[in-house]
């Protein structure tokens, strides 16, 4: 790994942690998921997953909502979904220009944020139910409003921010712009 990648991983991890603390008062609206996704997209699935794990390693142990080891592990490993998806999507992208495809890509990235968040929330809600001895159905039902808010906010963040952030990071990392082939 070169110094640029290590610096980028460190910076993105720090941004994940910092933005989670800044947004702690706004439930289910987080930039961390997006940052992990972008890390995976620009650096590969393993590096993206690493950003997710490292971020939750720190944030989860000093979580303002409290610390429950099982939920912490579930969120830490579920966060890797975003980095893995970002990295795997990258394999389907080729260097080119964004002209004429911005709207389509924004919708695509928004859908990716929405779907990835569904699986993240499903996994963490099932673990929560198990830890607190609550029926999974009850946990999913009462967690639905939070899940929907999380999905919609991630869809908006991923949709509006992916193209500009990918463009900047690709330039910083010395690569060309990327779009769906």
Considering the chains and any ligands shown, give keywords for the structure.
mainly alpha, 3% strand, 181 residues, Arp2/3 complex 21 kDa subunit ARPC3, 6 helices
Round the mean pLDDT to the nearest integer and report it: 89
What is the architecture at the second tier of CATH?
Orthogonal Bundle
Percentage of residues assigned to helices: over 70%
> How big is the Rg?
16 Å
What's the overall geometry?
A: globular
Question: What is the tally of beta strands?
Answer: 2
What is the CATH fold-level name? Arp2/3 complex 21 kDa subunit ARPC3
Strand order of the largest sheet: 1-2
Q: What's the domain count?
A: 1
H/E element sequence: HHHHEHHE
Structural class: mainly alpha
User: What would CATH call the class?
Assistant: Mainly Alpha
Note poorly predicted spans: 176-181
Termini Cα gap: 27 Å
Query: How much β-strand is present in the residues?
Result: under 5%
- Please count the helical segments: 6
Largest sheet: 2 strands, antiparallel
């Amino acid at each position: 790994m070169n110094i640029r990648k290590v610096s980028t991983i460190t910076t993105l991890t720090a941004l994940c942690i910092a933005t989670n603390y800044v947004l702690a008062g706004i439930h289910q609206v987080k930039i961390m998921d997006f940052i992990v996704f972008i890390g995976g997209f620009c650096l590969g699935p393993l590096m993206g997953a690493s950003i997710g794990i490292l971020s939750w390693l720190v944030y989860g142990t000093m979580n303002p909502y409290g610390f429950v080891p099982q939920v912490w592990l579930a969120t830490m490993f579920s966060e890797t979904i975003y980095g893995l998806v970002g990295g795997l999507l990258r394999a389907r992208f080729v260097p080119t220009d964004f002209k004429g495809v911005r709207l389509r890509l924004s919708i695509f990235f928004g859908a990716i944020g929405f779907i990835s968040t569904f699986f993240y929330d499903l996994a963490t809600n099932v673990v929560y139910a198990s830890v607190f001895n609550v029926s999974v159905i009850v946990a999913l039902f009462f967690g639905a409003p939070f899940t929907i808010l999380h999905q919609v906010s991630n869809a908006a963040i991923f949709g509006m921010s992916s193209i500009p952030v990918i463009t900047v990071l690709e330039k910083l990392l010395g690569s060309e712009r990327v779009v769906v082939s």
